[in-house]
């Protein structure tokens, strides 16, 4: 019998015209980037929070305090790797992850393959174990006005019975 846990994460970043947009560790050209003390990767931040949540291990702000200069401009893949390490230390491994990016731009469909492959690489799982979806808010709210991007993440982790 396997033991499973789920975790969910949510994050929002304000758009910043002078920054490069980075989602799932991938640079996307031609659209505004995101503010943030790190690289502003809203998708990876939501994912890291989901990983921390799945094993009841605090949250992103606790592990990477925004006021801590060590994390200034840190690549968010480092944050996700750290969260994954907590999952492993708790005796679990990632079964699958599902991301939803919420905003008017960019059109995620054109980048979905690249984003999924990048995620799979960061998480060290098969591409089939990660999903990247996108939605708009029908023009409503901060996302609809193009003021920011939001991301939702859900992960399932499975007790790791391997001895290694
Ligand atoms: Zn964030």
Q: What would you say this structure looks like, in words?
A:
The structure is a single chain. The chain has 5 helices and 5 strands; from the N terminus they run E-E-H-H-H-E-H-E-H-E. The protein is of the alpha+beta class and 164 residues long. It is globular, with a radius of gyration of 15 Å. It binds zinc ion.
Tags for this model:
single chain; 164 residues; alpha+beta; 60s Ribosomal Protein L30, Chain: A; five-stranded mixed sheet; 5 helices; binds zinc ion
Give a brief rundown of this model:
This protein has helices at residues 42-54, 60-63, 76-89, 112-123, 141-144, and strands at residues 4-23, 26-34, 92-102, 130-135, 148-159. By secondary structure, the protein is α+β, with helices and mostly antiparallel strands.
CATH homologous superfamily label: 2-C-methyl-D-erythritol 2,4-cyclodiphosphate synthase
Class by SSE composition? alpha+beta
Biggest sheet: strands side by side, in what order? Answer: 2-1-5-3-4
* Rg, Cα atoms, Å: 15 Å
Question: Topology of this protein?
Answer:
Blueprint: E1 4-23, E2 26-34, H1 42-54, H2 60-63, H3 76-89, E3 92-102, H4 112-123, E4 130-135, H5 141-144, E5 148-159
Parallel strand pairs: 3-4
Antiparallel strand pairs: 1-2, 1-5, 3-5
